[in-house]
Design brief:
This protein is of the alpha+beta class. The chain has one domain. Helices cover about 20% and strands about 45% of the residues. The longest helix is centred in the N-terminal third of the chain and has 21 residues.
């Protein structure tokens, strides 16, 4: 009987922990570079793992019409109607981000005015979306000017 109770307890703990890893929600600060001065906005990130698909949905805290959705399936990211692939560039990491490794994703079929690169990590979600003709957005748990500078440098390399 003891063994059965311990088994149920362990199964329950494991099942509950894995459920927490599948779906979570947090807040991210977005630093948006577009125009002369960067602006800051807060987004609610909802993360969902469903089989082989990882979904990140960022909804602006004030204006819910501002939504960014990213889906990762195997080695590809889908942003809007575009497919981004990992180009095997050396990943970006920083002590300020707990040494997480962020992979670089670029458009599968590059365009001169296209979005990219995108910096992404499966545990963190989006770190940055770069667009030379549109906004560049960096998502951080809290504002960090040194980290922002490092991210902008690697995006422009």
């Amino acid at each position: 009987m003891k063994f059965y109770c311990i088994y149920i307890l362990i199964f329950s703990i494991f099942f509950n922990c894995s459920e927490k890893d599948i779906n979570w929600k947090t807040e991210r600060n977005a630093i948006i570079f577009f125009g002369s001065e960067p602006k800051e906005e807060k987004f609610i990130l909802t993360f969902n793992r469903n089989g082989d698909s990882l979904n990140c949905r960022y909804v602006n805290h004030i204006d819910s019409s501002k939504v960014i959705s990213i889906r990762k399936i195997k080695d590809s990211l889908f942003f809007g109607f575009e497919k981004f692939t990992n180009r095997n560039r050396k990943s970006f990491s920083s002590k300020r981000l707990n040494n997480l490794k962020f992979e670089f994703y670029n458009l599968k079929d590059p365009l001169v005015d296209g979005t990219g690169p995108i910096l992404y990590n499966e545990e963190y979600g989006l770190l940055a979306i770069h667009n030379v003709y549109g906004p560049t957005i960096i998502f951080l748990k809290e504002k960090d000017d040194i980290l922002i500078e490092k991210v902008m440098k690697v995006l422009n390399d």
